[in-house]
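Chapter review. Work through the record for Helix-turn-helix transcriptional regulator before attempting the end-of-chapter questions.
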Amino acid sequence: MARLEYCAPRLSATGGLCPRRERIAKQLILANLGESLAIADLAQACALSRSHFSRAFKCSTGLSPQQWIRQQRLLRAKELITQSNLSLTQISLECGFCDQAHFCHIFTRSEGINPMAWRNRQVRHKPSVIAA
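Structure tokens for Helix-turn-helix transcriptional regulator:
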């Protein structure tokens, strides 16, 4: 039976990625957020095996590489929703989701509200600028 390990982020000096490797991985993810990025590619950039990289990344961040990527894609989507007039289809592709349906599913599961309703809520609560 496999033993599951949980590493709390930054509580232990052992088991995680060194700061340089963590920075490399995060920069690579953020630079390619709109594209598919294999964990094997991240591991190779850090000169680690795929399994060692995944385990160490989770120890360093508290999230698996896929969870961290998904979190960053959702943060980018929220930025685009509030700061642009792009359609949800355009936003989903810009943020690396395979299609709008998948994006809406992941967004709703994360936020408890669909992206269009979230956008409407943000617009409603946005302070209006009054010209002097």
